[in-house]
Amino acid sequence: MNKRLYVVFMFFTLLFLQVFVLNNILFLGYINPYLYVAFVIFYPLKEERFSLLLFSFLLGLSVDFFTDSGGIHAFSLLFVAYIRLTLIKLVFKKSSLDYLLFDLNKEPYGKVFNFVMIIIITHHFLLFFLANFSFNNLTSVLTQTVYSSIFTAILFFLGNSLFRNKK
């Protein structure tokens, strides 16, 4: 599939899924999956960084628009999009020469798991910290971060195993 078409399809699919399905799921009053963070994880590494940041900002802003959350989704997603390249260098030990051949599905599962969890936990912590915006609620922020991250990761890995191209 064409890379641009893939990015646009992924953008609108994750936006629709997040806004109309996943935002209506709330377990125990504080567990909510935020699967739209998968956009940053699956965005092609061969693309320039500006387009990743732009699309991430627009996706987060779109989720903010539908949830009336004042920009916290845009900031959280933009931040993890910004640190993604650094995390790829640290977790996968890749250099800029390796980017052309980089495929997340061909990397060892342990490294992929670590990378995905770092992205998800960082995103969720920023999201919930900005939503509460107080150190007095730090235990609530950490609880929401842990449980929502686990739920998001389960959905991510289930979806990834279902929709992965079998070659």
Automatic annotation (TrEMBL):
Belongs to the MreD family. Keywords: Cell membrane, Cell shape, Membrane, Transmembrane, Transmembrane helix. GO terms for biological process: regulation of cell shape. Coiled coil: none annotated. The keyword Ribonucleoprotein does not apply. This is Rod shape-determining protein MreD. The chain crosses the membrane at residues 5-21, 27-45, 50-66, 72-92, 112-133, 145-163. It comes from Polaribacter pacificus.
